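Aim 2, interim progress: modelling of the ribose-5-phosphate-bound target.
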Amino acid sequence: MLVVEGTSKTGIGKPLAAVLGAGFVEAGQRIFPDGESEITIEDHEEGEDVVLVQTTYPFQDKRLLELYLMAHEMKRRRVKSITAVVPYLAYARQDRHFEGKNNIVSISAVLEMLGSAGVGKLVTVAPHKKEPLAAFKGKVAVVDPIRDLASGIKGDFKDPFILAPDKGALDFAKAAAEVLECDYAHIDKQRDRHTGDISIVNAPKEGIDSKDVVVVDDMISTGGTIAQAARFALSHGARNVAAAAVHLLMVDDAHEKMGAAGVSRLYGTNTVNFEKAKLVDISELIAQSVRRT
Ligand code: R5P
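Predicted structure of the complex, ligand included:
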């Protein structure tokens, strides 16, 4: 078996190869003046099982296309099987036709694209929802890192309270609260699809006074969701507010926005590398999942 660390350089490939007892190579990359990538992958034994590691952020489209190119090349080399480890799977949120829009269900197209390049197994971490991945023709394994994330931050909180910023994050909050051995609750929010504005519809009124509130979510993009939850927690007496999410996309001024809302600490995982946060390494967890698949 051979693990190929893709152009996104996650740092997950090497530990993954060690756990799997596999060979390891890093894809080389040169960017042409016009922005196109030239990718090189060392020759390897014929008929091997290949694991390609490529996260798809930042620059979703570029990383996805590079993943396609690398898989396509593996297929051309007639490897035995191709497993794509995609810690952050871009487009997973575009999983349906939204009300009143003629949008493309992009995740279906992405899955089809990977399948056509010969990817037979897909391993990803905390996709927005699992159901849309059923459209993939091969095998899918979903890694749930919330317990590892919670364990990694547990020692930093004396008197924690877990807050989910919306109903969708409730399962995460419950699992994190189990690990941190504390209470949890969720906010009901509503997002205006046209303006993007978020408003709180319902929220816990008790339990957060004088607590170290940790807002947990699957991802942070613009930081708006976390900022709103932080303002809510602080206005209801929280001693301080931290944020913990699996994928830290941290678009534009997300970090500053959250800081201005009172978020004093930020935690994530290494599905995406955001240097200003404490990142919990989930390579081992991913490796276990690849081994099972
Ligand atoms: C939405 O349902 C997701 O779970 C996140 O809450 C959302 O994507 C976060 O986005 P933002 O940081 O832009 O508020």
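The mean pLDDT is 95. Residues 165-166, 168-169, 217-225 surround ribose-5-phosphate (CB under 6 Å).
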